[in-house]
Amino acid sequence: MPPLPGLRPRALALLLAFAPSAVLAQGAPDTIALDEISVAGSGAAPRPAFGVAAPPGAAPSVIEHPVGEIVTGIGRQDVIANRPATSIGQVLVNSPGVTVRQGNGPRDVVVSIRGNNARSTGVIKNMVVLEDGFVMTQPDGASRFDLTDPRAYSRIDVFRGPQSALFGNYATGGALAFRTRTGREIDGYEIGIDAGSFGYLNHYFTVGGVSGPYEVSLFASDYRLNGYQDHSSANTQTVNLLASYTPTPDNRFTLKVVNNTLDADLPARSSLAQYRINPYQRGCAAAATAAPGCTTVNLFRNGAFGATVPVTADEGAFGRNDRRTIIAGRWEHDIDANTTWRTQVGFDERNFDQPFYTTSSRGSYPSYNVLSDITHRTEVFGLPTVGYAALSYSAIDNHIALYNRAPYGGPRLGALASNQEAAQSNLGGRARAEIALSEQWTGIAGLSIENTWLKGRTLTYGYSAAGTTTAVANIDRSFLNVAPELALVYQPAQDLAFRGRVATGYATPAASALFITPAGVPGNNTDLRTQTNLGFDLGADWSPLPDLRLSLTGFYEFFRNELVTQSPGAGLLSYTFNAPASEHRGIEAGAEWAFSPGWRAFAAYGLNDQYYTRYVEQLSAGNLTARFDRAGRLIPGVPAHQLLARIGYDQPSGPLKGLGAFVEAVYQDGFFLDNANLLKAPGYTIINANIHYDTDLIGSYAKRLSLYVEVRNILDTTYISSAQPLANSISAVTGLQNGAGVLATTTGSIFAGAPRSVVGGMKLTF
Predict the structure, then answer these.
(1) Whole-angstrom Cα distance, residue 409 to residue 564?
(2) pLDDT one-digit tens code per residue, 453-474
(3) Do 154 and 29 form a contact (C-beta atoms < 8 A)?
(4) Which of 108, 113, 376, 398 could form a disulfide bond with 103, CB atoms 3.0-4.6 angstroms apart?
């Protein structure tokens, strides 16, 4: 492995725009990078705005890693190119500080950076997701990874810590920047197929190339799965297009189109007690004949009120039928040799039909976003400086009809439970300056100011023998948020860098959270406040040997009004509340070592210590109410330790060149499921092994053949892949807090992870 790229004289490390061919960690498609800062070279070419991912050669070098940020780049080798990664979660665990949970569907993983989204089991919050510079997070802060097929990407950059100064609203935990393979990288076409245990089958196709001023890449996949749990089959189709047109050297146009359809059956989430008896929810076709440990959900017999009937996931036909369509375009213009102006517009619609558990949610979330920014290279008091300024606007219309479920006969709808209409818009500006203070020191200052407007209402319907009642909850809220950032980078030598950073983040509550009460039913929860955090990072990156790269970061973050989501019980809607004050602190470490020809070792470790410092929880049951001080309690859902370690060998020469294998271990510590820290989900260690072969085909129409097979969870460990935090409760008789035994029998929390499975595949490149 070559050493880290160094600084040129005059230390223009602030420029961030470096030739892709010179940077192993972030430019080459087949690397795993651990660089925590970006280093840069000099040059007179103008630089595109932050986050742009123009095709190499079709535009100036790309600014993708602003100086001073805590960033890990994940490439393709041992992550995507030579293994059957079935979801993006299997890729992102290669970054320190990232936690992955199973969501509601095979590719619907829930990703958390520094534990900031670890309590969620559905929509991703507290981070901004981009793809090729286009925003994939909707204006209400929601992201999903159903549309994300790992095969499409050449690199993923993980920004850790508060990032609102750079990315605006919702970036309290960080950001993910996906980069698809460009036409120049593909230069032909590829066909592939992966198949394996539990009916897994994925056909995919990639084509790309360059012709004059045009560059196009197109990826398409058809993903099928029967599932390792009862009632968990799925199929999802994805199309991902990236195209660019460069009519002149100073004008570049980019088109981005993504379309994904999903049809998935969902198993029921079990209690911890049920998980221990029947982790994979097998033998659960019918409640009347269900095996021990099967989870059932009570549905109103008449779909409206009164007597209930227990049903299994099969009988309730729980599932999701969703579509996501994104169309976006960008124009980049070099005003002069030192100034680039960029304008991009995107349309994003999420359409869903989700009849699972006690309700069925149907709706459409059309949204759009506009961004215009300018990047300028200049000197301030004789110091080389990059300045960046941006204006952004985004808006979303939420239309959701929530129905009670009726038992049997497929996903039958019962009575209308609520009808929600809401609009959210965000208007803001961001500015950033990176100044080369000397050949060794670089200073960074950034600021974001943004206003969010939320307006809407929900009508909630109640049914009884006496008739129907209607309740109205209205919202008309405005949030003004400011997020400054300061950072300093010191690089005394080309193989050693120190960095310090103070940054802030903010995340406004989404309209959907304002309309779910702590009882887990539609209603008024409109007093939620903006979540904010102030974070301190201190770290170093060192390459003591040419083939050894080390990274260490310590962080301490102070949260106010942290948005915490938990389940109030079986079949009920998860609700959100503000924890007045909490602290998050931890350590993130990464290492990569090519210790002998062909051999490579890799490790990514994260330590999280997160706890409430001010939070009094009020619980009620019957006519009794009690208050409990949670200060000092660990925040549920966040594992203290997580580690990925991998060692592998690839034959570098000879007749077996291209043959390789690796073994990896994924460890995750246990975590509490409740605010009182009474019940804990156990930790686990999963071991995976892979063997692969990649060779050029001489004298054949095809250019290259790739073969791979992987055994995941070799030891067949039973483990929890997802656990929804549970609300504590009190006895309606004594007023005392119920113990761990009550929580352990509360359903609606747990999905088991996959048992031992074998997946193999092949890819032909033409």
Answers:
(1) 36
(2) 999 999 999 999 999 999 888 8
(3) yes
(4) 108
**How far apart, in whole angstroms, are the C-alpha atoms of residue 595 and residue 35?**
18
What is the C-alpha to C-alpha distance for residues 505 and 185, in angstroms, rounded to an integer?
Answer: 35
Q: What is the pLDDT of residues 589-600, one digit of tens each?
A: 999 999 999 999
Q: Are strands 297-300 and 308-311 parallel, antiparallel or unpaired?
A: antiparallel
CA distances from 758 to 37, 149, 686 (A): 37, 19, 14
Q: State whether residue 701 is helix, strand or coil.
A: coil
Listed as ranges, residues in the chain with pLDDT below 70 are 1-65, 567-572
Cβ atoms of 168 and 431 within 8 Å: the answer is no
Give the C-alpha separation, 283 to 229, whole Å.
Answer: 10
Alpha helices in 235-337 (DSSP H): 272-277, 313-316
What's the sign of the alpha-carbon dihedral 515, 517, 523, 524?
A: negative
pLDDT at 568: 67
Task: Quote the tokens at residue 405.
Answer: 């479920």
Rounded Cα distance, 92 and 266, in Å? 24
Model pLDDT for residues 625-647, shown as the tens digit of each residue: 889 999 999 999 999 999 999 99
> Which residue matches tokens 């960046």?
388
| Selection from 553, 441, 538, 436 nearest residue 491 by Cα | 441
Q: Which residues pair with 211 in a beta bridge?
A: 214
Handedness of CA 31, 34, 38, 40 (dihedral sign): negative
What CA–CA distance (Å, rounded) separates 74 from 592?
Answer: 12
Q: What is the distance, to the nearest Å, from the Cα of residue 26 to the centroid of all Cα atoms in its chain?
A: 20
State the Rg of the chain over Cα: 26
Structure tokens at 497: 């860098």
pLDDT in tens, 678-694: 999 999 999 999 999 99
Structure tokens at 359: 């309700």
Two structure tokens written together for 12: 């223009």
Report H helices in 129-287: 164-167, 183-186, 272-277
Tokens found for residue 559:
């949260």
Q: If we measure between CA atoms, which residue out of 98, 73, 37, 64 comes closest to residue 588?
A: 98
Six-digit token string for 685: 């260690």
Question: Among 269, 121, 274, which Cα is nearest to 745's?
Answer: 274
Do the Cβ atoms of 464 and 305 come closer than 8 Å? Answer: yes
- SS3 of residue 665 by DSSP: strand
- Burial class, 307, CB count within 10 angstroms (exposed 0-12 / middle 13-18 / buried 19+): exposed
Q: How many other CB atoms are found less than 10 A from the CB of residue 280?
A: 21
pLDDT of the residue at 571 = 57
Nearest partner of 167 among 212, 136, 206, 121, judged by Cα: 136
Return the number of other C-beta atoms located less than 10 Å from residue 616's C-beta: 12
Residue 138 burial (10 A CB sphere; 0-12, 13-18, 19+): buried
Q: Kindly list the distances between the CA atom of residue 336 and the CA atoms of 19, 430, 703, in Å, as whole numbers in the listed order.
A: 20, 22, 42
Q: Please enumerate in sequence order all residues whose Cβ is within 8 A of that of 656, keeping only pairs 6 or more positions apart, or say none.
A: none
Give the Cα separation of 316 and 329 in Å (integer): 42
What is the structure's pLDDT at 57? 33
By DSSP bridging, strand 128-131 and strand 174-180 are: parallel
Q: Show Cβ contacts of residue 568 under 8 Å, excluding neighbours closer than 6 positions.
A: 518, 519, 520, 574, 575, 727
Q: Token match 């090729």: residue? A: 132
Torsion of the alpha carbons at 512, 517, 520 and 521, rounded to the nearest 10? -80
- Residue bearing tokens 């660089």: 35
Residues 602 and 79: their CA atoms lie apart, in Å, by 12
In one-letter notation, the amino acid at residue 704 is R
Q: What is the separation of C-alpha 480 from the centre of its chain, rounded to a whole number of angstroms?
A: 25
Q: Which of 428, 197, 237 is nearest to 323 (CA)?
A: 237
Beta strands (DSSP E) in 249-304 are: 251-265, 297-300
Q: Which tokens in the block code for residue 335?
A: 């005003």
Pairing mode, if any, of strands 496-507 and 750-752?
A: unpaired
- Which pLDDT score, from 0 to 100, does residue 120 have? 76
